[in-house]
Amino acid sequence: MLILLFYFFIFIVAVQILYYLGVFRVFAFAKDQKSTPKKIPVSVIVCAKNEEENVAQFIPLLAAQEYPDFEIVLIDDASSDKTLDVFEEFEKQYSNIRLVKVENNEAFWGNKKYALTLGIKAASKDYLLFTDADCYPTSTNWIATMTAQFTIQKTIVLGYGKYERITNSFLNKIIRYETLLTAVQYFSWAKLGKPYMGVGRNLAYKKDEFFKVNGFIEHMRIRSGDDDLFVNQAATAKNTTIAFEPDSFTLSKPKTSFNDWVSQKRRHVATANHYTFFDQFQLGVFYSSQLLFIVLPAVLLAFQFEWIIVTSLVAFRYLVAWIMIGSSARKLEEHDLKFWFPIVEIVLILIQINIFIINLFSKPAQWK
User: What does the domain layout of the chain look like in residue ranges?
Assistant: First the structure.
C-alpha cells in the first residue's frame, strides 16, 4: 500500500512541477511591460449598490485620471442608502460623469448583470474599462496603462486588482496571496493562449465583444460572474491580452472578517463551476494536486517510508514554487508575500477544501 502511495506522490509532484514550470513560469519570467498610451476614447464603468462611503472616497480618484478622453459611467443598482445622492452630486461636479439609475425589475431583481448591461448600453465610448465601487487606481495613469494594451486584434485586457495591505493581519496575507496566485494563473493561461477569467476590479474590453456574445444572456441567471464568466465565454487567444505594469493596478479594501471573506470565496468557487470543461479540468487538477501534495508526504513520512526521497521531492517542489511565486510577486508588487510562503499556501489549501465541501451542501449568498 505504501509503495503505491509513494509512486502516486511522485506523480503528484510531477503534476505540480508541470504547472509551476510549464504554465506559471510563462508569467513569472515575462519581460516587464513598458507601454505607450494610445489615447483612445474610454468609458470607465462603476456599478454600485449601497456603497455610499466607498464611492464618496474613490470616484474623485477616477475623475483625477490623467487621460485626454474618458467618461465615468456611474451605475446605481437600486441602492437603499445614499449612493444615488452621492452620484448625483458628482454628476453636477464633473462634466464627464454619466449617471445610470437602475430600478428593481421583477425579471432581474437584484441582478448586477442587468445593471451593468444598462450601464454598458449607456456608455458613449467604444472601449470600456471596469472597476468596482470599493476599488481605486494606484496611479493617475491607470486608464492610460490599461488601454495601452488594446490593439486592432487585442480587444480584451485582463488587469490586476490588488488588495490593500493591513499590517500584522494574517488573514490579509491569505487574502492577498490567494489574489496573487489567481492572477498568476489567469495571466499565465492568457499568455499561453487559453484565457479563462478576469476580475471585475480591473478589466477592459471593446463594447463589440460584449454584443458579440449577447452580453450576459447565457449566464444571466447566475448572479455572479459578470467578469470571469464573460471572459470565459468571450476571450480567445487572438483577442485577449494582459496588463501588469504597476500603474495599471487597482486597489481594493480587503475583508477584515474571516467569515465575510469565506462567503466571498464561496461565490467565486461556485461561479467556476460554469467555466468550460477544459478550464474546470485544469483548475481541478491543480487544486487537487496541491491538496494531495500536503496529504501524501505526511502519510509517507509518518511511516518513515523512503523519507529521504520524499523529503527531497517536497523540498524541490517548494523551491520551484517559491521561485515562480517570488518572481510573480515582484512583478505585481506583493513583495512581502514571498517571505510567508509556504505557510500561507498550506493554510489557503486547507481553507479551499473546506469551502469546496461547504458548497456541496449549501449555496453561497449572492450580490447584495
Answer: 2-28+277-356, 42-257
At 199, phi and psi to the nearest 5? -120, 135
Q: What is the pLDDT of residues 136-160, one digit of tens each?
A: 999 999 999 999 999 999 999 999 9
**Nearest-5° angle of CA 364, CA 340, CA 349?**
35
What is the SS3 assignment for the chain?
A: CHHHHHHHHHHHHHHHHHHHHHHHHHHHCCCCCCCCCCCCCEEEEEEECCCHHHHHHHHHHHHCCCCCCEEEEEEEECCCCCHHHHHHHHHHHCCCEEEEEECCCCCCCCCHHHHHHHHHHHCCCCEEEEEECCEEECCCCHHHHHHCCCCCCCCEEECCEEECCCCCCHHHHHHHHHHHHHHHHHHHHHHCCCCCCCCCCCEEEEHHHHHHCCCCHHHCCCCCCCCHHHHHHHCCCCCEEECCCHHHCEEECCCCCHHHHHHHHHHHHHHHCCCCHHHHHHHHHHHHHHHHHHHHHHHHHHCCCCHHHHHHHHHHHHHHHHHHHHHHHHHCCCHHHHHCCCHHHHHHHHHHHHHHHHHHHCCCCCCC
pLDDT in tens, 162-209: 999 999 999 999 999 999 999 999 999 999 999 999 999 999 999 999
- Other C-beta atoms closer than 10 Å to the C-beta of 225 total 25
What is the structure's pLDDT at 221?
84
- Report CA 210 to chain centroid distance, whole Å: 19
| CATH homologous superfamily, domain 42-257 | Spore Coat Polysaccharide Biosynthesis Protein SpsA; Chain A (3.90.550.10)
